[in-house]
Amino acid sequence: MSKQQLILNVTTRAQTGRSASRRVRKANQIPAILYGKHTKPETLAIDAPEFVRLLKSVAGRALLIELTRKDSANKALSFLQEVQRDPITDKFLHVDLQEVKADEKLEIRVPVQVTGESFGVKNQSGVLEIASQTLRIRCLPKDLPPVIAVDVTELKVGEAFKVGTLKPIAGVEFLDSKGQPVVSCVEPVGEIASAAPAAGAAAAPAAGAAAPAAGAAAPAAGAKPAADAKAAAAPAAGAKPAAAPAKK
Question: Based on CB atoms within 10 Å of each CB, which residue in 6, 84, 122, 177 is the most buried?
Answer without folding.
Answer: 6
